[in-house]
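Appendix C: a fully annotated inverse folding record. The material below is reproduced so that readers can follow the format used throughout the book. The structure is listed first as tokens, followed by the designed sequence.
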């Protein structure tokens, strides 16, 4: 009888874990390399901007930095037009290896190396409070929480 009660308790435990995972999938973005943001309005960036960073909010409450590559830059005006796309080229790592986030809070432009090219091939740091904060030097922050659509990367075609 005790073993039957234990078995039922284990089953109910698995059921509750399964429900929690289902709820999480409805509220968490799984951001990976190749995912895109499509702008709903023009994004103006400084002329010497080299990388764009995103403020990402994890389910646990931590904020992390993710970087993106500009796919449709205007070299002279430095305006990414409405409909322009930003592609994730990488994410900073912390304890959550799955790169799961609740939402993308803002876009941050980092002015580095005085280059006219917009390139994002590397990411900095672990947490918002430590290294991401340091990137504000010489940079600009645009609060664009509702100004873009998140588009997952196209799945690879398998034959």
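Designed amino acids, in order:
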């Amino acid at each position: 009888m005790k073993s039957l009660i234990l078995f039922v308790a284990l089953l109910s435990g698995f059921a509750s874990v399964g429900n929690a995972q289902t709820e999480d999938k409805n509220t968490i973005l799984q951001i990976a390399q190749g995912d895109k943001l499509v702008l709903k309005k023009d994004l103006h960036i400084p002329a010497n901007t080299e990388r764009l960073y995103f403020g990402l909010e994890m389910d646990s409450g931590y904020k992390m930095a993710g970087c993106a590559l500009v796919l449709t830059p205007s070299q002279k005006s430095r305006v990414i037009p409405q409909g322009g796309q930003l592609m994730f080229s990488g994410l900073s790592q912390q304890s959550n290896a799955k790169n799961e986030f609740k939402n993308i809070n803002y876009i941050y432009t980092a002015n580095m190396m005085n280059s006219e090219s917009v390139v994002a091939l590397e990411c900095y740091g672990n947490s918002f409070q430590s290294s991401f904060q340091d990137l504000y030097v010489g940079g600009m922050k645009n609060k664009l929480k509702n100004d873009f659509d998140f588009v997952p990367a196209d799945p690879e075609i398998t034959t």
